[in-house]
Amino acid sequence: MKYDFAAIESKWQHFWQANGTFAAANPGQCGFEADRPKFYVLDMFPYPSGVGLHVGHPLGYIATDIVARYKRMCGAAVLHPMGYDAFGLPAEQFAVEHGVHPRITTEQNITNMTRQLKRLGLSYDWDRCLTTTDPDYHRWTQWIFLQLYNSWFDPTAGAARPIEQLRQKLEAEVLYVGPEDELIDSPAEGLGAVTGMPIGARKWHELSANQRTAVIANHRLAYMDEIDVNWCPALGTVLANEEVTNEGRSERGNHPVFKRPLRQWMLRITVYAHRLLEDLELVKWPDPIKTMQRNWIGRSEGALVDFAVVDRDDLIRVFTTRPDTLFGATYMVLAPEHPLVEDVTSNSQHQKVDQYCRQAVQRSEIDRAAETKSKTGVFTGACAINPVSGQRLPIWIADYVMMGYGTGAIMAVPAHDQRDHDFARTFGLPIIQVVAEDSVDVQVEAFEGEGTCVNSANDEVSLNSLTTAEAKHAITQWLDMKGLGKTQVQYKLRDWLFSRQRYWGEPFPILHGPDGEIVALDEAELPVELPEMEDFAPCASEDPNEPVQTPLSRAPDSWKAVDRDGKRYTRELNTMPQWAGSCWYYLRFIDPANSERFVGREAEQYWMVSDKKDGHPHAGGVDLYVGGAEHAVLHLLYARFWHKVLHDLGHVSTPEPFGRLFNQGYIQAYAYTDERGVYVPAEEVKEDGQRFVCNGQQVRQEKLGKMGKSLKNAVAPDEICERFGCDSLRLYEMYLGPLDQDKAWSTKDIVGQSRFLHRLWRNFVNEETNELLVSDKPAGEDLRRMLHSTIKRVTDDMETMSYNTAIAALIELNNELISAKTTPRDVAETMVLLLSPIAPHISEELWQRLGHDQSLAYETWPIYDKALLVQQQVQYPVQVNGRLRGRITIATDADDKAIESSALAEQAVKDAIGDNPVRKVIIVRNKMVNIVAK
RNA sequence: GGCCCCGUGGCGGAACUGGCAGACGCUACGGACUUAAAAUCCGUUGGCCCGUAAGGGCCGUGCGGGUUCGAAUCCCGCCGGGGCCACCA
């Protein structure tokens, strides 16, 4: 019988499903074995798209499947689930275009993608499959939102705590309330450390009921605030900063995005900035991803400094990372949105300032970013006093200072900051050098490096001759003493804008009262399901200033209105963003059917708390998380934040969700264009010598690009499985190159892997007679050595996920077997086991033909015999002056002297040395010999 | 502009901490089998040169330098490609 991959693959896929081969048992469940180490290996779950999978998707899925299968054979209990991240814009857009409810299209897409995934023979525990749009799932998403809403960040604990504890602390007067509702440790701090002005700490019992509610609200981890949001009129929704490209357009759809003030739900991720930063130390993630998160969080150390405005009571507070250059400040800049702009502007400048600010705010982020770096600005007519030099500093407005970072105001030091320098040169402002540097003329360009202070002294303090680091310290101390400033750690990270004006998302478990009060639902009232609606289209518009409506505002009153305690409440009409469901799905996989809790405690501990000896003992969490690098700062940061909150509140056991992260590369493919420059379907393009032809027309090969609709270069896995079988597809994708690199797809190359499997089959099965070509004669010495070196190579590669070289090793062994008529049984069985994680179907079939009646999924992974890896004899290449001149073969245990004399006895070596004296002989054991003779 | 990654035959890639460059696969070419083709099998396949041949020599990991007995690998400076961030004070 020939290698009939179609029959074999279908047979084993049915077998696995019928026998529940890959079902994982939780503690307490039937089949649970407490003594097995656990291994949780997770894919980033896909969005159920209408076009289904292309061959790029499974790259990571195949890799995790190999890990899962390998770990099972190593004796681990493996949790390997798959699900769907199904809320989000594309389903809704498709629904709007086709008039089909998104729930229906989502279900269809899921059915199709599940079929595709199953055809790849992936060893998921399908019983754990979940979908984020399922009310049984999003009920718990809403529940987690309630945890956020009902918590605050206790700075003393450095962690989230129930909001009730804040109320108690305020009532007990352990905490007091400052003028901006900030919490203050004691009324004795009534004199502001920075300004010296009274802060006005208030006691809880002095506050009205409304004030109390507001104070509490201002410390919840989920809160509403009127903020400048990224408004995308074309999509009819707001977007998080992370969802806006640096050209100021929407990541989805590439529509223009505008700034506009809106009252929105926010999550207070900023209070976790330092922990999100520090705990990166605990996880085994690729360095580039860690760096991206660090940059995104954007920690910088510096100082806050207050500048008094001349002839006014106002203070302008700035943040600077270079307080050592304070004496070099020659002007100040406020962001156009800064609240003091109006106050300080003089009458004569009022019109100009007003015009400038209006322009700046109106301009979408696009222009502001895409603008050449040329500086614009306008003088307010007001001045501030440099607190160290007493100099008058003109106050300007300029859009190169942004309200969103620091205090929205800066002191400008043109000598030592290039942006300030550009601005100063444009408007003829003075440039004062305060850091010594010979090689740079600060009148021409800024010197931004560190050095020694000059020109930096007043009657009380001198920084002159101090280094930058010393000067920063000295001046900050002096400012602090004077009540003019203090050290400050600043983060770029902003709070997370958490509401969207869409239909297809999780409803908030929130009611709004008639007097504007916000009431959270009780846990028992969950889930809040989406209302059935005919028209779920977003309220898109051309006009960025049109009033904001949400689709849910058109929901029937039977859904929208809730009567309670004699009052009529309205449900929150925004929905949660796409990210909500993916922030915690890895927890639900652990216990997907639990109706009492979002995840059972025992199961959570079992699957999340890491074994002590697995290489990353600190983090715990998912043992291996595989997905694309595009989620470096969105999903991965949000999920870490939620996880930390849940951890603080005692709901999960580990500080981090994902102990180890691996980013697979993308599979790319060539795209082709015709003479009009229009993309033609890549699958219809034929190669004809040097030319490419599509439908008789010559087409041009474009650059490699990500597979997809737009480049018309997607290849569906279905047709590949049809033609070559999924074992060949799996081998091919893994053989393409290192997993973390991008690589080019080439359908014609799959034949290599297909050939390998056919040859393997013929090494085991006589195609004519269907006989097994396996002998019970033990393998000879050489073959056994090769087998064990293959075991070592494949095992090492499994550990590092270097599947391309593991496959090469298996091919080499298989090629060796071709010359023999029969394969010794021990070699055959071992080889099948080694191959099985990568090509499981053919392996199962051969395993059965070798006489086993059970799946090999839980067979013990082969162990190599170290003794067989040690050769009796070693061949040494012999170099003379670094050039290869000959070879010697000598006993492995020969001493250096014997190796040396043997090498020197070699005729070719003698010739190469000639009359030159031998100065040195370098022997690297088991590697090579180098003779230095000059 | 800043930070990071990468550069090896016609192609994808291999080479563990510096130690035989090009494993393995694809392509191409030659041969076997076949009426023929496909499939399959065998061989060759980095460049240049010497030799009828067996065989041998030189060059070679983007470019230029350096360290070293020895560099694809480490260091310095360029060039080319990719990614992330981008007026973050």
Give me the count of strands. Answer: 37
- Assign an overall shape: globular
SS element count, helices? 29
N-C termini distance = 65 Å
Which sheet architecture does the biggest sheet show? 7 strands, mixed
Gyration radius (Cα, Å) is: 34 Å
Which regions have little confidence, pLDDT < 50, spanning 5+ residues?
Answer: 189-198
What class, by secondary structure content? alpha+beta
What is the percentage of strand-forming residues? 15-25%
User: What value does the average pLDDT take?
Assistant: 88
| Helix content estimate | 25-40%
Describe the protein.
Helix 2 (58-73) links the parallel strand 1 (38-43) and strand 2. Strands 10, 11, 12, 13, 14, 15 and 18 form a 7-stranded mixed β-sheet that branches. Strands 26, 27, 28, 29, 30 and 31 form a 6-stranded mixed β-sheet that branches. A 4-stranded parallel β-sheet has the order 2-1-24-25, with helices on both faces. Mean pLDDT is 88; it is low at 189-198. It starts with a helix and ends with a strand. It has 29 helices and 37 strands. The protein is an alpha+beta fold and 934 residues long. The structure holds one RNA strand of 89 nucleotides.
